[in-house]
Amino acid sequence: MEKIILTGAPGSGKSSILKELEYVYGERIIPEAAEDVIKYLQARGDPEPWKNSDFQDKILRLQIQRERQVENLEGRVFIDRGILDGLAYYQIDRREPTLAMRKAIEESVGRYAGVF
Q1: Spatial contact of 33 and 108, defined as CB atoms under 8 Å apart
Q2: Which of 42, 59, 80, 93 is 20 to 30 Å from 1 by CA-CA measure?
Q3: H or E element: which one contains 103?
Q4: pLDDT in the model for residue 13
Q5: Which residues of 14-28 are buried (b: 16+ CB within 10 A; e: fewer)?
Q6: Rounded to 5 degrees, what angle do the CA atoms 50, 61, 3 make?
Q7: Are 116 and 6 within 8 A, CB to CB?
């Protein structure tokens, strides 16, 4: 499976481009994990889940799960942010990446065919 990442700031149009690729061109996509984690945790009563120390690891787990679901398929998939996007948030928060993130970074070498 060829994995292609769309990365960028919130509100920059990544999800809109991916919806176009999926609905108009029939491409396979993986939606952004962070948005789903936020919605889930807010529905469970946590109004600001991004303040929790394990927030990025929760996103990472969901992202890895979603990417593994398509590994054995043929063709390509466009992904709304990749595993390495989470690393930027550790840097913004001036925190060291967790062991899970460091391991994911090591395993990401050669994982993606392209990043836009």
Answers
A1: no
A2: 59
A3: helix 99-107
A4: 92
A5: bbebbeebeeeeeee
A6: 110
A7: yes
List, as one string, the DSSP characters of 4-71: EEE--STTSSHHHHHHHHHHTT--EEE--HHHHHHHHHHHTT-S-GGGSTTHHHHHHHHHHHHHHTTT
- Is the model's pLDDT at 86 over the cut of 90? no
Q: Which pTM does this prediction carry?
A: 0.87
For 109, residues 6+ apart whose C-beta sits below 8 A from its C-beta are none
CA angle 111, 84, 78 (to 5 degrees): 55
CB 79 within 8 A of CB 5: yes
* Least confident interval from 21-25, 61-65, 87-91: 87-91
DSSP class of residue 113 equals S
- Distance CA(15)–CA(28), nearest Å, equals 13
What the block records as the tokens of 46 is 């946590």
d(CA 64, CA 77): 14
Three-state DSSP at 87 gives: helix
